[in-house]
Every structure is written in C-alpha cells, then in structure tokens.
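Hi all, a correction to my earlier message: I attached the wrong file for CIDEC protein. Here's the right sequence:
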Amino acid sequence: MDYAKSLSQRLAAPVSKCVSASASMTQQLLAGPAPRPRPYRLCNWDRSLRKGVMAPSLAELLRQAQSALALAAPIVLVLDEDGTAVETESFFRTLEEGTALMALSKGQTWTAPKTRGYQVSLSRKPPRRIDVACVTFDLYKTHPKDLGCLNVKATLYGTYSMSYDLRCYGARRLLKEALRWTLFTMQATGHVLLGSSCYMQQLLDATEEEQKEEEKSPVPLQSLLPRGLPALPYKKMLQ
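and the right structure:
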C-alpha cells in the first residue's frame, strides 16, 4: 500500500506541474503582451520642478510622479497645456510619447503658464504627410581642377525614382571646347558669306553683260520713223 501511494504521488507531481504551466501560459496569451514603458514629462503645480519618467501604465505613472515630485497622496494627473484630467487607462494610452503632464495633490489646481509664448511642442505631433514628389540636387567634384558635377534625383510617391548625372569638364578642357566650337562657327559663317558673295557677283556680272549687248546692237529704221505718218502707196513710189 505504501509503495502504491508513493508511486501515485510521483506520477501526480509532473502532471500537476504541466497543468499549472499550461494554465499560466493560457493566462499570458489571453492577457496579451505587457505594454512597454513610454517616456513622459512631469511637473508640479507651479512648474518649478520638472522630471522625466518612463511608465507603461497610468497606475505606474502615478506612483512614479508621487515619488519623483515628492507629493502627498492622492495625486491627480492633468495635461500641462490645457489642464485636461487623465483619469482612465484608455485615455492614458492615447497620449503621445513625451507628453507634458502636471501632478496635482490635494488643494492644488491647474493654472495657465504665466510666461508669454510658452508652448509645449512635444505633446502634439504634426499629421503624417505623404510626399508626392521629391527632387534633390547633389553638387560634387571628382577632381580639384574640375568645375563640379551635378546629380539630380527625382522620387515620386517614395517608390519611383530617376536620376541624371551632369559631369562638367575641367576649366582648360571646357575653354578648349568652347574655342573649338567658336572657330567652327566662324568658319561655317565665313563659308556661307563667301558663297553668297560669289553668287551675288555672278548675278551682277550677268546683268552688266546684258546691258552692254543691248547698247552694241544697231537700231532698226522702222523704230526711227514716226509711228503717226501713213505709209506711201506703191505706185507713187515707182514714178
């Protein structure tokens, strides 16, 4: 009998451990992951003392605020910018990281800041924006004697990007290329002017030759007679 009791106890111990371990794991899965600590800024009622703390929940933040600011329990947390009370865990989870809070004990009330222009910029974040197009210009040099290179990169909706690399030559090479193009332009212009002048000279020579030929040719007699006189009959001319 004793042997049977001891054997049953030995078999029941691992079973109970497995059941307790599975129960604890089930509770953890149902409860979900523990919230991670987030940073907050705390101050007392007259803003003379400021502290920064990390807390995962409202209860832990209340405890740390009471300890850091040396306040008597109970305390209440309000937003430093407008005095909104933070009383529930659901509202606490909606606060952004770095939110400025004020801890008030019994008999203390929230007051607006007396300093003109006082703003709490970390309590609110600007709305998320979507970039439609982004153009960047990168000016760099590959050699000290170079004038510089320019890289232009355009990105559309953060997905499609295209770039163009404009590389400039050195100062001497650039001047040499500019003189070469200037010389080529002058030569082309000279050829065009020379061809035009030759064509105009040929045209003038042809016009002068036509005038000289007209002057050398004899004038016909009919052109010298007056056109108004009647012609003589044929018989009278025979007599």
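Sorry for the mix-up. Helices lie at 2-31, 58-68, 89-93, 171-216, 221-224, 234-238.
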